[in-house]
Amino acid sequence: MLASLAIGGADPSAFLSTPMDGLANEPALAEARMDPSGNQLVAAVTGELQTAEGRANAYEGSRDRALAGLKQASAILDTAAPADAAAFKAWLGRIALLAVEARSAQHGLGTGGAQASDKDKAALAEITRVLEA
Predict the structure, then answer these.
(1) Residues 102-124 as b or e (16 or more Cβ within 10 Å = b)
(2) 18 with 100: CB under 8 angstroms?
(3) Whole-angstrom distance, CA of residue 110 vs CA of residue 122
(4) CA angle in degrees (0–180, nearest 5) for 86-87-93
(5) Between 20 and 30 A from 55 (CA), which of 15, 83, 85, 113?
(6) Are the C-beta atoms of 8 and 24 separated by less than 8 Å?
(7) For residue 116, which of 97, 129, 131, 90 has the smallest C-alpha distance?
């Protein structure tokens, strides 16, 4: 999840706009928006996620935490499971690559030659650096 979250955080404008993000988050957001007796903090956060700036802010922090988590996981693997570390890190890298490919396909809307965004490519490169450090 950290690898895919780090990719998702590469392009905050895509937050809640891809089909998977929308499907995963929209029911909870809609429920919070429609509940007149709901918690004020939940309503404020839900309202903030409705704005481009709010989505960007939410993802920026998530991306940074995800990258920090990957770095920590990498260090733990190197220490606790050195024989398995390379294979596990390769698997995490593969998850990140699949997230980029899925986002590219979604943005291409089936046009057949969808390319990864520069932001997604940069995030993938950063994940690779973190996992190889």
Answers:
(1) ebbebbeeeeeeeebbebbeebb
(2) no
(3) 23
(4) 90
(5) 113
(6) no
(7) 97
Contact by Cβ (8 Å): 54, 48: yes
Residue pLDDT tens, the chain, 133 long: 566 666 666 665 554 444 455 445 667 777 777 777 778 888 788 888 778 888 777 777 778 888 999 999 999 999 999 999 999 999 999 988 888 887 776 655 455 556 778 888 898 999 999 999 8
Q: Where are the alpha helices (DSSP H) in the chain?
A: 2-8, 19-34, 40-49, 52-80, 82-108, 118-132
- 3 in Cβ contact with 70 (< 8 Å): yes
Residue 42: both structure tokens together: 């939940």
Q: Helix, strand, or coil here: 12?
A: helix
